[in-house]
Structures are given as structure tokens and as C-alpha cells.
Design brief:
The complex is a heterodimer of chains A (293) and B (295). Chain A is an all-alpha fold. Chain A is built from 14 helices and no strands. Chain B has 295 residues and is mainly alpha-helical. Chain B is built from 13 helices and no strands. Classes of the chains: A mainly alpha (293), B mainly alpha (295). Chains A and B meet through helix 1, helix 2, helix 4, helix 5 and helix 6 of A and helix 1, helix 3, helix 4, helix 5 and helix 9 of B. Chain A: This is Sugar ABC transporter permease.
């Protein structure tokens, strides 16, 4: 406790140290969040006055099929990408720390490369693979006598391609987190399990998974938040199409706010996204608490 | 949180290391290695196919049957991409944004992370929660008003408008906090006894110690900014200010996508990051990131 008292004496230095981040937080978080909330009750277009319209934006939003479609599509997308990424990153991490797999140096680099590639370029890479008339995938399928699959013009197939690309892209970072966690599982646990004659799956299920639970939680939370706001990958892969079928929520906000200059309306949509993300974070934090308790 | 995470003094590198002479070992080696190499092919192939295709002549890109290797390798696509777009400028703009943002991010995150690790007060705790909030509620949730704020600050259509709002990062701040927590307080106390000021101790003694973290965050920050698309797209209006991602995206946005140019441009835009990664690999691969969510 002596420690605490001594530390408390310093005010100026720590204040100075956090000053940059504190200013940035106030400027680029508090300020926009507050005026955003304010503008969501107006029909502001970015210029001129901002006429107050009350809850009108939110009412329009709740009756806007495009908004609901975007939200629903975002949830389907996130609900597919997060579990796939989880399995892929844990699987690759497990193989990279396993003493049984050979050639890990190269494998590590290959698994990690997609992290270096931007969503735009990743989108281009997968579009090149899955082009309807020119892609390698359809070419190979044709070799086996399968008719060209409409990877671009069918909305659901198009979304599947984006999900594959997003999993491919998201594996690397989460794999890093899992590698660090797996390396920290005490060897003695496995040795004890060996003495008890536990099988590989049992050891994974009963020792590895519980031991890395805190990291699993971080992976799920961070990739959920990240996936919910994907935009670049869609721009490059299918431009949110065919038509507007694969417009996700961020694209919806971008289109209404910046293409149609409906700042007030877009602010309301942004605020709904903010609430959803906050809800996701709180639910996951609470679930994690309960599990840990 | 979880009970079984880290019993002290029992950490070792290989969780499964049980060098046994059981006959199952060879089978396991074969099984694990083949699964891993199958995944290596699955993860590596799309990029490989993409890069190889970029060396095909434009006329051969779509000619069936597709061949894996180009018959007459050419760099025409690259040359055309470089000349038909203002690619050099995009490169310089992206580099400016990435370098400036990275330097600022390191300074801001190191200082804030150090304060969170070595001082205690109620307002620092609140500050930590605020930083965490930026992860939970990213810029996309306040896209339109954030744009208005940046415009009001006179930063619209300037590269600083791309850089400044991106400097604050929870990942970076907590990376430093986590590191500085492990630096013994005795070191700080000793410096105080020697009469070194708090800020001076931080800059002269603590920052040099944090070199590995600085490098790790530098690579992360550089990657974030290099690959950023939506925010630069909103802030930058003048083609002279465009970054690489906007440039490449504009090629895809065209009515008829010129794939030869697109392939060349895309590959060129990836090269710097891949090069940086290959040089500083160990700083990335050993990163322990938890964005303040685990303690």
C-alpha cells in the first residue's frame, strides 16, 4: 500500500504523458460522437442549417428495407466469418506449435502473408480466382465438366466468396494470438494427462481449450468488431453487388452519408451500428466474466 | 478470469513436446505435416496465382486453356500501371501517411502506455476505459460526424486529415502498458533518487528498453495505414492526394476492368509491406497483443 501512496504523488508527468491520446480522444471520439448524436435528430446535409426533425430519422430507418437488408447481411457475414476465422487461426496456430509438423518456418510465412495484403488487394486476388468468365476456379470446374458457377451474379455465392476471402485474410492476426497462448500452456498438464492415458482430442478439449480461453475470448470479440465494419473487401470483390444485394452496414452508411449527403440520416444509422457493437461487446464481456467466475 | 491460464514457472515452449519412441510418432508426424502443407497450399495459392498472372501478357490473361506459367513473361502490366496512373505520387502519399502516422502513434502510445503502467490514480483508470472504448466503437460507427469534425478543423483533403485521427490506438497503448508493467519499479525509483525527472526518465531510460515493442507497433501501425481505404477515401478528394488503395480501387471501379494494369498495380502496392515484414519478421511473430482485454 505504501507503493500506491507514493505513486499517487505524481500528477503532472502522467497527465503530460497521456495528453496526446487524451486530446485525440476528445477531438476524434467524444466530439464526433456527441455531434453525431445531435445530427441524428436533424436532416443535415453537410452544408447550411441542420433542421431539427426529432426522431424522424430513426423512424425512417426502422422502415427502410435497404437498412434492414444491410444489417441482416452484415450479421450473416459476421456470423460466418468469425467462427471460420476462429477455427482456421486456432488450427494453423496449433500446427505451428506442434512438434509433429515439419517445415514450420515456411508455413508460418505463408500463413502470415495475407495479413500484409490490404482488403482491397485481397478482394482483387479472390476476384481473380473466382471470376465468372475468366477465373481459375470456374476453369478447373469446367475441366471436370461442371458448368460455370455464377460467383459474381448470384448474391449468395458472391457473399460466400467474400466470406472465404475474409477468413483467409483474418487468419494470420488471430493465429499470432493463439500461438502466444498455446506456447504458454504448461507442459506438465499434458504430461499428467499422458500418465492418465488421455487421447489427443481429450487433451485438446480438456486442457488446451480451457487454458487458452482468455485468448479465445479476445479473438472472438476483436474479430466480431472487425468483421462488422468490413468495407474494402466488398468494394474490391463485388462492389456490394450484384446490385445492392451485398451492401453491408458500413457501405450503407457511406452511401447515404457521403454519396447522397444525408448526414443526419447517416448519423442515425451510424448510431444504430454503435449501439449494436456496444451490445455485442457487453454481451461477450459478460459471457466471459461468467465463464471465468 | 480463467483459472488455468498461467501457473507461474511452468512456461515452456512446446506444449506437446513429449519425445517418445512410440510407433504412433511417425504417423502423427505424417498426419500433422500433411494437414499443415495442405493448408499452406490453400493459403498460398491465391497469391501465387495472382502474382504469376501479373507476368502474363494482357492478351494471354483470358485465353483458354489457362496455363499456370506464362509462356512469354512480361512486365507490360507493371509498366502500364506505373505510367497510366500517377503511381509514383500514390506511393509517396501512402508512404507519407504511413510514416507520419507510425511515428506519432509510437510516441503517443508509448507515453500513454507508460503512464498507465507506472502511475496510479482514478483518472488514469477512466482514461484506460476511454482508450478501450476506441476498440469497441471504431471510427466507422461515427463516420459521418467524424468527417464533419475533421472538415471543421480544416483538415479535409489533406494527408494530415488521414493521419491525425488515426494516431490513437488501444492496441498500441496497451502493448506498451503491458511491457512497462514488466519493467521493475526499482529502476524508476533509482532514477528518482538520482534526481532524474519523470519525463526525462521515461525518454532516456524507459524508451530505449522498449525497443522491441516500438518495432512491433511500428510494423503494425505501418500496415494499418498502408492498407487503409475507407477513411482516406472520405478525406481525400484531390487525385494528387490519393493513396495506393484508392488508386487501385479506382481501377476496379472502372466500367471495363483492365486486369493487366490491375494485376501489376496490385502487386506493386504489396511489395513494400512484404519486404518490411520479411526483414522484421521476428518482431511481428512474437508480438503479444491483447488490446487491453486481458490481464
Amino acid at each position: 500500500m505504501v507503493h500506491k501512496v507514493r505513486k499517487a504523488r505524481y500528477v503532472g508527468a502522467p497527465l503530460l504523458m497521456i495528453s496526446v491520446n487524451l486530446c485525440l480522444f476528445a477531438l476524434f471520439f467524444i466530439w464526433p460522437a456527441s455531434i453525431g448524436l445531435g445530427y441524428s435528430f436533424t436532416s443535415y446535409t453537410g452544408v447550411g442549417t441542420a433542421p431539427f426533425v426529432g426522431l424522424d430519422n430513426y423512424e425512417r430507418l426502422s422502415g427502410d428495407p435497404a437498412f434492414w437488408a444491410a444489417l441482416w447481411r452484415t450479421l450473416i457475414y459476421t456470423g460466418s466469418v468469425v467462427p471460420l476465422t476462429f477455427v482456421a487461426s486456432l488450427g494453423t496456430a496449433y500446427l505451428l506449435v506442434s512438434p509433429y509438423s515439419k517445415g514450420k518456418t515456411i508455413a508460418r510465412v505463408v500463413f502470415f502473408l495475407p495479413w500484409l495484403i490490404s482488403p482491397i488487394i485481397a478482394g482483387v486476388i479472390w476476384r481473380w480466382m473466382f471470376g465468372e468468365n475468366f477465373g481459375l476456379v470456374n476453369f478447373v470446374l469446367a475441366k471436370f465438366g461442371i458448368a460455370a458457377v455464377p460467383w459474381q451474379s448470384n448474391a449468395d455465392l458472391s457473399l460466400i466468396v467474400v466470406i472465404i476471402a475474409a477468413t483467409w485474410m483474418g487468419t494470420a492476426f488471430n493465429m499470432l494470438l493463439f500461438i502466444a497462448a498455446l506456447k504458454n500452456v504448461p507442459v506438465s498438464y499434458y504430461e499428467a494427462a499422458d500418465l492418465d492415458g488421455a487421447g489427443a482430442w481429450q487433451k485438446f478439449r480438456r486442457i488446451t481449450l480451457p487454458a487458452i480461453a482468455p485468448t479465445s475470448f479476445i479473438v472472438v470479440l476483436l474479430s466480431t468488431l472487425h468483421t462488422m465494419k468490413e468495407y474494402g473487401l466488398f468494394v474490391a470483390l463485388n462492389a456490394g453487388g450484384p446490385g445492392t444485394a451485398n451492401n453491408l452496414i458500413v457501405q450503407y452508411i457511406y452511401t447515404t452519408g457521403f454519396k447522397r449527403a444525408q448526414i443526419g440520416y447517416a448519423s442515425a444509422a451510424s448510431f444504430v451500428l454503435l449501439l449494436i457493437l456496444a451490445l455485442i461487446a457487453v454481451v461477450q464481456l459478460m459471457a466471459n466474466r461468467r465463464k471465468g467466475a | 478470469m480463467a483459472i488455468a491460464t498461467r501457473p507461474p514457472a511452468l512456461r515452456r515452449t512446446k506444449p506437446n513436446a513429449r519425445p517418445g519412441s512410440r510407433t504412433g510418432d511417425l504417423a502423427r508426424k505424417i498426419a500433422a505435416s500433411s494437414v499443415m502443407w495442405l493448408l499452406v497450399v490453400a493459403y498460398g495459392f491465391p497469391t501465387l496465382w495472382f502474382v504469376i498472372s501479373s507476368f502474363k501478357p494482357a492478351g494471354k490473361l483470358f485465353s483458354y486453356p489457362l496455363t499456370f506459367f506464362p509462356e512469354n513473361p512480361t512486365i507490360d502490366g507493371y509498366v502500364e500501371a506505373w505510367t497510366s496512373f500517377d503511381f509514383a505520387r500514390y506511393f509517396i502519399n501512402t508512404l507519407l501517411v504511413a510514416v507520419a502516422a507510425t511515428l506519432l502513434t509510437i510516441v503517443a502510445s508509448a507515453a500513454a502506455g507508460y503512464a498507465l503502467a507506472k502511475y496510479q490514480s482514478w483518472w488514469l483508470k477512466i482514461f484506460a476505459v476511454c482508450i478501450l472504448l476506441t476498440t469497441m466503437l471504431p471510427g466507422e460507427t461515427i463516420l459521418a460526424p467524424l468527417f464533419l469534425v475533421v472538415r471543421n478543423l480544416g483538415l479535409y483533403n489533406s494527408l494530415s486529415g488521414v493521419v491525425v485521427p488515426a494516431v490513437i490506438t488501444a492496441t498500441g497503448t496497451f502493448m506498451f502498458r503491458q511491457f512497462f508493467v514488466t519493467v521493475p519499479n526499482d529502476l524508476l525509483e533509482a532514477a528518482r533518487i538520482d534526481g532524474s525527472g519523470e519525463i526525462s526518465t521515461f525518454i532516456r531510460i524507459m524508451m530505449p528498453l522498449a525497443k522491441p515493442i516500438i518495432l512491433t507497433l511500428a510494423i503494425f501501425s505501418f500496415q494499418w495505414r498502408w492498407n487503409d481505404y475507407l477513411w482516406p477515401l472520405i478525406i481525400l478528394n484531390d487525385p494528387n492526394q490519393f493513396t495506393l488503395q484508392i488508386g487501385v480501387a479506382s481501377i476496379i471501379g472502372a466500367q471495363n476492368v483492365n486486369w493487366s494494369v490491375l494485376l501489376g498495380a496490385s502487386v506493386m502496392s504489396m511489395v513494400p509491406l512484404v519486404a518490411i515484414y520479411l526483414v522484421f519478421q521476428k518482431y511481428v511473430m512474437n508480438a503479444d497483443i491483447n488490446a487491453g482485454l486481458k490481464d
